Amino acid sequence: MTRTPGTGEMPVDIVVDGGGSGTRIGLVHGGELVLTRRADTCNPRVVGEEVAWQRLIDLLNWAAAGVENIRSTCLALSSVSTPREVADAARLLAARRAECAALRAGTCWLMNDVVPLACHAGCGVAIVCGTGANFAALGPDGTWAQASGLEYILADEGSGWDLGVRALRAVTRAADGRGPATLLSRLVPVALGLPADATLEDLHEVVYAEGGRKSLVARAAPAVLRAAGEGDPVARDLVEYAARELLLGAEACARRAGLPAGSPARYTGSLLLGDEPALREALVPLLKASPFAFEPSPGTDPLEGVRALALRLNAGEVDLDRVPLAARV
Question: Which residues are in the ATPase BadF/BadG/BcrA/BcrD type domain (predicted)?
Answer without folding.
Answer: 16-272
